[in-house]
Amino acid sequence: MATPGSLYVTMQPKPGLPLEQFHEWYNNEHGPTRLKLPQIFTNGLRYQAKDGEEPTFLATYDVTSMSHLETETYTTLRANRSPREAETIGQVDVTRYFWDLVHTKQSPLFIPIEQLTDEEAEGLTLVAVQLRPSDVDNAEEQIIGWYKEEHMEMLSKVPGWLRSRVFKISSLEKGEPTKFIGLHDYTKDNGLGGPEYMTATQTPRTKALYSKYATRISRREYSLFYVFGAGSRDLQNLSKLPPAKSTFKSPDGQMFTTNSPSPVIESFIKTPDGLTIPYRLEGNSDPKATTVAFCNSLLTSLHMWDRFIDIFKTKRPQYRILRYDFRGRHSIPRPPQPSTLDILADDVSALLAALRIPKLDTLIGVSMGGATALKFALKYPEKLGKFIACDFNAASSPANTAAWTERISIAETPLKDGSAGIKKLAGQTVGRWFHPATMQKQDTVTWIQDMVAENDIEGFRYGCQALWDYDMKAQMKECAVPGLFVVGEGDAKGALVKAMDGFRGQLGQLGAELVIVPQTGHLPMCEDPEAFWTAVEGSL
């Protein structure tokens, strides 16, 4: 039988370790690594002491079954620390406890903290009281009975009370003396110290318990200041570090941070079907900054936006910027599963959840990314303020499906020199995408050709199927999210301009404006980023 519980860690940085360095490591490396294991950890919460005592910092993780903490999945996290983690943890006094859950009582108003927004969660109060049973018969039973039969009920009358839980030192803690801890959650503004609280803590049964059956080891009061997600997102503390301390690359190469010349986090999330999706977070380092996200086209990477982002960061410094790579760019889930627009929209939602972003200001996508932006607006309107969909079609066609089948064949057929067929496809693709004027810009041509040629071939085969059989035209009238359509003047030799003009009026009640970017083809943001900025700046 699974025993749920808590991993409870107190921390005190030693003199000489800057707090921003401590927080950046914990928020961007240590915590998210654990939250990437939802089968073990349901949440991760960071608190700071309100009582002026040390240790100053506390982290708690709710554990689905305490036996998971003895599995290789968890123990290898501690055994395979990065050099930075090993160095940092050596500058922190750490005490770690395993607690088995005994009993819970919660208010009808209680919402699991990980389901709250950061704004809603910030400042929630936690009171932690450790007890040691006296060396008399039935002391443990008396403590548990007091909690269940009286104390939790009395505390529930305190204004702002949300939940009380009692834990016993875990059976995993071999040889440790028996202890209990009560964890009590309250709203930021609460009645701690008020008449209801004083009544709850001074009953005859409480006084009798402490006189005969229990000794209070400690009572600590904390304020919640950070909720982990599975994605690293702390640009704020990263921005405060000197460049030498900010640059970090994980041993597996899947995470990178730097503050030179500006704060950037590159990391990844795991989708529910086990796929790894890389992302890049940058821009405004304020955790309350609104976020603009970008969906690239099929066959390109998140770096297709590089030149435009340079302009965007200068023109709109108030935004946090999120980019990611589509599924299929690097690999596919096992067993292989064809992509659909529904799955691609779900991936955006999963990414936002991992980064604890409740709502995007804007989602900007091109080609398959444009179709994804529209699908996301239709499926998750509560998570989006507006969208910009570029060079895409609202419905697929049999001819389009046939074309993708042919392109898969090209990518999978090795060339005579033994090189991968994806290189041939890259040349054909860029020639088809770009306006003749762009084809004269050799640096741009080479940049995108190389990007296309780096695709995982099997991933391409399954990823492109999202564009095979879809039709969003019937749904578009229901769209409650305002959108802007943008298209390169020469995309498909002008055919896509006519197509998008034909369905733009079907979006919502008012339709969508269509902006045409001159002298560009399928990727106007790559071909002429300044002209693309002119096209979209009014919406941003």
Automatic annotation (TrEMBL):
One of its GO terms (cellular component) is membrane. InterPro entries: AB_hydrolase_1, AB_hydrolase_fold, AB_hydrolase_sf. This is AB hydrolase-1 domain-containing protein. It comes from the Eukaryota. Residues 292-392 form the AB hydrolase-1 domain. One of its GO terms (molecular function) is hydrolase activity. Transmembrane segments: none annotated. Keywords: Hydrolase.
